[in-house]
UniProtKB/TrEMBL annotation:
Organism (species): Cyprinus carpio
Protein name, UniProt field: Glyoxylate reductase/hydroxypyruvate reductase
GO CC, one annotated term: cytosol
Pfam families xrefs: 2-Hacid_dh (PF00389), 2-Hacid_dh_C (PF02826)
Residue ranges annotated for the D-isomer specific 2-hydroxyacid dehydrogenase catalytic domain, each copy included: 22-310
UniProt keyword Transcription regulation, yes or no: no
Annotated family: Belongs to the D-isomer specific 2-hydroxyacid dehydrogenase family.
InterPro entries: D-isomer_2-hydroxyacid_DH, D-isomer_2_OHA_DH_cat_dom, D-isomer_DH_CS, D-isomer_DH_CS1, D-isomer_DH_NAD-bd, NAD(P)-bd_dom_sf
């Protein structure tokens, strides 16, 4: 997939390869390895901040991240240094939407609990309300942050006979909303009306911790909260209180703060909280596409050519 005729590109690629096959390496090791690089290919767990950019030195021309999110990149520092940034939107939309639907169903229909009961002898005589959950038919699905992924989620949920889609964002997005016949509502109305609430917004200073007690306290008692965006948008202490006190019915999380979430974290003690290890884009097809796009972004940047997907700073 990658052809390079320059020593510069090859040196950069070998550094990248080492970085990706050693995911447990510390930031200290990265600071050592990055010195003198012309380009960096990173994943979302690697923090590209002022300290790392300083360690890299003046040769650094391009950073390519194998992710659609870029909250791990210090964009102001990159812009200040004139460093170009590549990222991987679009190629993971379908995969993330599929996982979001799977997580929503696993949470709302209590599949993890049910599997545990079947394995551990809890499956006894038939009981009328045992392991009952909440269905999508005739429900209202809310989307916090309507973009490509939010639309793709709604398209997959529509055949489940969802009654209504609603969304909120920094402003109405009529072109996308019309694709799924979604109604724009306020943040408070999103909380009050949603039977299922899917968080799809980017992590920004404005959205950091936006899913907190203020949101959860306005939600229905039978509501299911799903987050496949970034862990930082959720106040996890408030979520724990909402779940443990029955304020909302359940939550499904593919992202947390920190990652990995410590095994002793209180959220792991709750039966009504399903936690996955950030696998929304984890299909062979999507990860291969992300890898190729990230590599091609990098090489285009090193050659001074237009990137297939460049983040405009």
């Amino acid at each position: 997939l990658i052809e390079s005729n320059t020593r510069k590109s090859l040196n950069c690629f070998f550094h990248i390869f080492l970085s990706l096959i050693q995911p447990t390496q510390s930031q200290v090791e990265l600071l050592k390895k990055v010195k003198g690089c012309d380009g960096i290919l990173c994943v979302l767990t690697e923090k590209i901040d002022a300290q790392l950019l300083e360690a890299a030195g003046p040769n650094l021309k391009v950073v390519s991240t194998m992710s659609v999110g870029f909250d791990h990149l210090s964009l102001d520092e990159l812009k200040k240094r004139g460093i170009r940034v590549g990222y991987t939107p679009d190629v993971l939309t379908d995969c993330v939407a599929e996982l979001t639907v799977a997580l929503l169903l696993a949470t709302s229909r209590r599949l993890i609990e049910a599997t545990h009961e079947a394995k551990t002898g809890g499956w006894g005589t038939w009981r009328t309300l045992w392991l009952c959950g909440h269905e999508l038919a005739n429900s209202t699905v809310g989307i916090l942050g309507l973009g490509r992924i939010g639309v793709a989620i709604a398209e997959r949920l529509k055949p489940f006979k969802v009654k209504k889609f609603i969304y909120t964002d920094v402003a109405p997005r009529p072109e996308l909303a019309n694709m799924i016949e979604a109604e724009y509502v306020s943040f408070d109305e999103l909380a009050k009306q949603s039977d299922f609430l899917a968080v799809c917004c980017a992590l920004t200073p404005e959205t950091h911790g936006i899913c907190n007690w203020n949101l959860f306290s306005k939600m229905k008692k039978n509501a299911i909260f799903i987050n496949t965006s970034r862990g930082g948008v959720v106040n996890q202490e408030d979520l724990y209180e909402a779940l443990s006190t029955g304020l909302i019915a359940g939550a499904g999380l593919d992202v947390t703060t920190p990652e990995p979430l410590p095994t002793h974290h209180p959220l792991f003690t709750l039966k009504n909280c399903v936690i996955l290890p950030h696998i929304a884009s984890a299909s062979y097809t999507t990860r291969n596409a992300m890898s190729a796009l990230a590599a091609n972004n990098l090489l285009a940047g090193l050659r001074g050519e237009p990137m297939p997907k460049e983040l405009k700073l």
